[in-house]
Amino acid sequence: MEPGLVGPGPYRATRLWNEIIEHFRAGMPLRKHRCRFKSYERCFKASEAVDCLHELLGSNQNFGPEVTRNQTVKLLRKFLKNHVIEDIKGRWGKEDFQDDGHLYRFPPSSPLKPYPKKTSCGMEVIKFPDWNEPKAGTSQEHIPVKSITMNSEMWYKRHSIAIGEVPACKLVFRRELTQTNIGEIWKSMTLSRLQKVLGLDSLNEVLDTKLVNSKHIVQNAYNVNKQGIVTLEDKSKELPHWILSAMKSLANWPSCSDLKQPTYSGFERDVFKTIVDYFGQMKEPLLTFHFFDVFVSVLGLLQKHSKAVEAFQISCLLLPPENRKRLQLLVRMMARISCNKDLPPLSESVRTRTLMVQAFSRCILCSKDEMDLDELLAAKLVSFLMDNYQEILSVPSALKSSIEEHVVHLQRVQIKYAGADTDATFPPPSFCHQISTDEFEFQKATGSQEPLTALLEEIATNKEISVKDKKKKLKQFQKSYPEVYRVRFPTPETETVLFPEKNKQKPPILMWALKKPFQPFHRTRSFRM
């Protein structure tokens, strides 16, 4: 059975755990072994289990070939602790599994983890300012109101909808948005986009949206330097200078402006150990415990590269600014060290890239409840981060532009008709659904032609503009929208009705002037006669 990709969604880590157990039980060869002059049926050696599970994880799309044998041994220790396997004497519960010849077997039934029941967070309703409330100290009487009244004939000609009176309308002047309003708009639209990219009906199962700080999102989007690194308002949360110097020395090896060249062998390993120790003593990972489920869900999109990058971009935008800055600096250093051929090996037995993943994966992502697949999931995420850190740790430009355009739209003066209970300029959130091609073409035609037809009728019936200007505007409209124009004026005769000819009688003096040039001709003729 070929293991498939477990997509984003709630309890993804638990689903992965159960899937690995099922495939391991199904794929692990069982046979008779002898130990201390005694035979044991349907069991396996520890080293055989490591071989089988390592091959299974390497071919699994959710983990990949970067899984090491050491990580496989750690996972089998957790299997022993959780009674997924037991030794031939039935003992389990300890993490003393070793890659050796000890014999193990499966219990009658390996316990699959139940899906935890999370308390529902409820869908958060983002409150926006009431645009219809006047500012303090102002009165609605001072807001200009323009009433429009049309007779039934003009209403029928202009809209071809119904006969009646046009309701009065008024200009609504928007309140100036506060920083709090803008922050809530950023939060609402950012979470909405994340939910759409992940393909989830709700974010409630992977994220408590009430704990998302809108100020963090805005600061991460705007307070950045030329390199795209977040600038902190609170300087006390910056990395210590000595850690920054150590990180720069390895990232820019062998040229570094902060430190002089070392005079002893192994200097670079000591610097690296100092950095590892500093990040290892943090109480919470850089991606925070709160966002663990979100980032694990994003890992389910790795086969769709562009979607995975966008989902990581948005998720990293939710982090506290100090965490985002440390993540940017750390991952950039890791990527540069992995590609630096001039840097001496930092380990005798492990490749530099693998060493980076093993050393820093836990300080980047781990669960507060110490989940069994933390290490494998973190390694997968860190590897993807190192390969795409420049894109992932930058501000998503498309999201930023759409939010800024929406904020500008809300600040414009709008027209509101009497009797309208809600503001049409800011509709409630809605979800897209797929429609047929015929329905799309119908909506395209009706949605665009109706206002164009109304505009053409307005030009045709407007008596305040001159004939010359009217002809000019009609020509422009005909050139831009020939189909709409052809429906209103199917023949030239229907167009000439707008411009009736006026019979003007020429004055006699003009007729006399026309006859005057022919008088010499008459004289010549009479002379010959």
From TrEMBL:
The record's listing under Pfam families reads: DEP, RhoGAP
Write out the GO MF terms.
GTPase activator activity
One GO BP annotation is:
intracellular signal transduction
Query: Which InterPro entries does this UniProt record tie to the protein?
Result: DEP_dom (IPR000591), Rho_GTPase_activation_prot (IPR008936), RhoGAP_dom (IPR000198), WH-like_DNA-bd_sf (IPR036388), WH_DNA-bd_sf (IPR036390)
Q: Which residues form the Rho-GAP domain?
A: 198-393
Task: Please name the SMART domains in this protein's record.
Answer: DEP
Tree of life domain: Eukaryota
Swiss-Prot/TrEMBL keywords? GTPase activation
Protein's UniProt name: DEP domain-containing protein 1B
Source organism: Thinocorus orbignyianus
